[in-house]
Amino acid sequence: MYILYLDDSGSVINPSEEYFVLGGLCVPENSLRWLSYKIEQLAERIAPESPSSVEFHASAIFGGREKPWDEIPGRLSRVNIIKDVLLTLQEANPDIVTFACAVHKASYLAQDPVHIAFEDVSSRFNHFLGRITPNSRGLIVLDKSVHETSLQELAISFRRSGNTWGSQLRNICEVPLFVDSKASRLIQLADHIAYAVFRRYNANDINYFNCIEHRFDSDPATNTIHGLSHLHRNHLTCTCPACLSRRTS
Ligand SMILES: [Zn+2]
């Protein structure tokens, strides 16, 4: 069983943000404890007395206004904490891969960017499961704060009728599970991945994206990045890794 942990970054309604991102990581069940422990060790470094009180949430760490981040002086120190969370993936097995979809909101004015991103990422996850081994099964776990009801309804209808590309998500079980980010270190890591992709596309800030760029699901045989997609009306001229990979493959 493979679990895809997803979180969002960027506001759907905030006109000052150009992008909405859904992103996260896919972990085989036998690596769940190891990766959670790596992030728990970071929490122990920040609050040795009460690591469970530390919730890693990238935008809150960067902002430095909430506890315990308000006690960490200097923006650079807090930026490095966000990177440390992302860099836990450095030692991970190659079968732990990341997925993300960045939707340029102005390119899809008549559509809901949350639906577009969920359809895109779940379809990519389904293809990944079909590609790795026959009969691989996957489960999607989302942060509770992401649009629970609409995403559940979407997942049910995708499975019944297939998404707009006509491929059914047969490798993915059940409807997505929604969990409280406080209780899941891997949802917290998904938050950082979504944040890294959001900063890459919304602000041209590659600081965080560089920590995970090589982790997106890809096919070495064709040199194609499957795990990252950039949905923009000008994708044919875009030189980001996702658009370039699609054009050259
Ligand atoms: Zn692009």
Any overview of this molecule?
The chain is of the alpha/beta class. The protein has a single domain, classed as 2-Layer Sandwich (Nucleotidyltransferase, domain 5), CATH 3.30.420.10. The protein has helices at 32-46, 58-63, 75-87, 113-132, 148-161, 185-203, 209-212, 241-248, and strands spanning 2-9, 19-28, 97-104, 138-143, 177-179, 218-219, 224-225, 228-231. The strands form two sheets. It has a six-stranded mixed beta sheet with strand order 5-4-1-2-3-8, sandwiched between helices. Strands 6-7 form a two-stranded antiparallel ribbon. Helix 4 crosses helix 5. The longest helix has 20 residues, at 113-132. The chain starts with a strand and ends with a helix. The relative contact order is 0.20. Bound molecules: zinc ion.
